[in-house]
């Protein structure tokens, strides 16, 4: 669970998301029902198979994103801030008292991650001027590489989140290393692509 390339577990989920996308386009009106069913099944399956349950839960995160992306009404700034604060409070409290339990690892982490993402993305759409896209384009370009590299600094032999007793310092170190390794991987990727084009 914590060695080697274990942090790349989510790539299989990404492939699964690609596979389900054509079906989502056909069941737009029933997406909420599908999402609720997947949450219930995924959470229940976690008691039997953690990997199987989390695969279903994280696939449902993609479907939630797909659902919100296609909604006409956007979340207001006030609601976005409320979602962010509530998600952080629930996450911190549950981490203190329920860490290591199935209900925390599967359901509460999943729900707070998803709600926090919805709140942050909704708020960022209001804050940033989308006509000035330089910073947004940069984050968009590097986000996949951050996604691939960040987790190895959170678990396993390269874990930095437990490096010191200071959570803020650990977070800064982890974020810095994640962006550094993501930038390096991005440059390698572009170099390989350019070589293949030649």
Query: Termini distance?
Result: 40 Å
Main β-sheet, in a few words? none
State mean pLDDT (0 to 100 scale): 82
The strand count comes to 0
List low-confidence stretches.
Answer: none
- Portion of residues in beta strands equals under 5%
Order of helices and strands: HHHHHHH
Count every helix, treating DSSP H or I runs of 4 or more residues as helices: 7
Helix percent reads: over 70%
Please tell me what the overall shape is.
globular
Question: What Rg do the Cα atoms give?
Answer: 18 Å
**Structural class by sheet pairing and helices:** mainly alpha
Can you put this structure into words, describing what you see?
By secondary structure, the protein is mainly alpha-helical. The protein has helices at 10-24, 31-45, 50-69, 77-98, 102-127, 134-149, 167-197. Helix 3 packs parallel to helix 5 (102-127).
What keywords describe this structure?
7 helices, mainly alpha
Lay out the secondary structure.
Elements: H1 10-24, H2 31-45, H3 50-69, H4 77-98, H5 102-127, H6 134-149, H7 167-197
In a nutshell, what does this entry contain?
The chain is mainly α and 198 residues long. It has helices at residues 10-24, 31-45, 50-69, 77-98, 102-127, 134-149, 167-197. It is built from seven helices and no strands.
